[in-house]
Specification:
This protein is an all-alpha fold. It is 73% helix and 0% strand. The protein is flat, with a radius of gyration of 20 Å.
Amino acid sequence: MTQEAEQLIIEAAMTMRPEHRARLADQLLASLDGPDAPLSPEWIAEIERRIRAYETGELAAVPADASYFQSIRAKLTRGSAQADAGQFVDPDDVLRQIDDLKRDRAAAAERR
């Protein structure tokens, strides 16, 4: 495929509604997925450590209610509107905001 053809496809995709672009991106990314690589021994040890911490009560589970998902959906919607306006969001900022939400939810759960 030529660069011109690729550019035409990208330009056409950018005219799509955000939810349709997301679905297209999801399908394109899924087409790149190969079989999952085996976990490294370090990751296996970390997974086992977290499971033990949860089972012993050292690590608490934080329930996610509807308001939690609404707050994430609102942030994603704002990000989508910004992208539509040509204002792109730094993915690291989004991840930090999600981490902040998780911390807030955990703190709220501890206060109960």
